[in-house]
Amino acid sequence: MSKPSIPQGTRDFSPAVMAKRKFILNTIESVYKSFGFMPLETPAMENLQTLTGKYGTEGDQLLFKILNNGDYLKDIQLTEVDSKSLTPKIADRGLRYDLTVPLARFVVMNRHEITLPFKRYQMQPVWRADRPQKGRYREFWQCDADVLGTDSLLCEADFIRIYTSAFSQLGLKDYEIRINHRKLLEAVCELCGAGDKFKAITIIIDKADKIGNDGVAKELIAIGLSEADSQKLLSQLDRIAFTEAGLAKLEKELGHLESGVKAISDLRQLLALSPSSLNTVKLDISLARGLDYYTGCIFEVVPTSVKMGSISGGGRYDDLTGVFGMKGISGVGISFGIDRIYDVMEELKLFPESGDQFTDILFCPMDEPALLYCIQIADQLRHSGVKVEVYPTASKLKKQLDYANDKKILWAAIVGENEMRTSIVSLKNLRTGEQDTCKSGDILGFIH
What we know:
Number of domains: 2
CATH architecture of the largest domain: 2-Layer Sandwich
Mean pLDDT: 89
Helix content: 40-55%
CATH superfamily of the largest domain: Bira Bifunctional Protein, Domain 2
Shape: elongated
Structural class: alpha+beta
Distance between the termini: 51 Å
Radius of gyration: 28 Å
Low-confidence stretches: none
Largest sheet: 9 strands, mixed
Number of helices: 17
């Protein structure tokens, strides 16, 4: 018999872990709702043609393809070994890579039923055929919020507010919100005489955290930049304060370029619309966000007290719906990476202690008649919102109390023949060890 296992880059989540994940998800969802976002879900798999061509060449290579049903090789010649030509013939579906492209597809398919601007949040797993490592998984959850149908920079400013609200409620204080503008990167590329290589350069810069500046320089030279131009480009990728003074400095360097003018104008407007306190926000010109569909402001959030990649990201995309036949719909969105946020919060011990307490009180019947008596009281307490368990058999008290302690249950209600006769229960606080009695109808007031 083979030893059971799960695919590399995936994980099981125990009840204790799920309680912490639910804490993150519920917190983010409540913040999204407070800004007027509505829930949406889309299928785990999409038609492959929906997904391909939206994430750049490297992104397309990370798509998980699903083999066609039945005898998927019946029409294939054995001489066909080229994967690029073979894939479309044996797989016409794939697991979603992110939640943004499915959103664009949904909006186009439901254009007559939705109201623009369309504000939706979506919290579902996505899949990428990446190399698993710390903080990087093949199956992971994204918690997206997007606005489609407006180019107002108030949306970007609200996302900064969403970040500060969500991380405050999660207890995460040490983080940095990094913003950039894709046209600012375009201007830097033009300044270095490499404007025609913009897309290739953004993909390379996006890998800087993996390959370092030396690796970036080598790859820039490999696509045709001179060593001097590659070093000039790298020297422009500074991180500065998101202030009027910072924008004025950029204007001196890039304000003579059309793309620079547009980027600085947008960033000025975003600054004006953003919260007054921007201590956690930095303008990071090296921020690239390698996905092809970004066109305007882009975001990433990075923890500063834990070694971890970005825990959120996103940006403006001007015409993602256009590839599905609905032109001129601008959108902007962000995505929280719940898996990395979980890892950061776990390392910093930020989860509330009561997060994995699934039951408030355990009824411990001492005999079979007491079991029925416990069930009746438990039903009444559940109607009042109390999380109640009844131990399923009349076992020894130690066994029942051990079960309660293992599950971190705070209260045990012990019921035997004497308790039934007098309509009382013996209540034991399993943290303090104190025990008292009360009327069965007074349990709610006693334990709260």
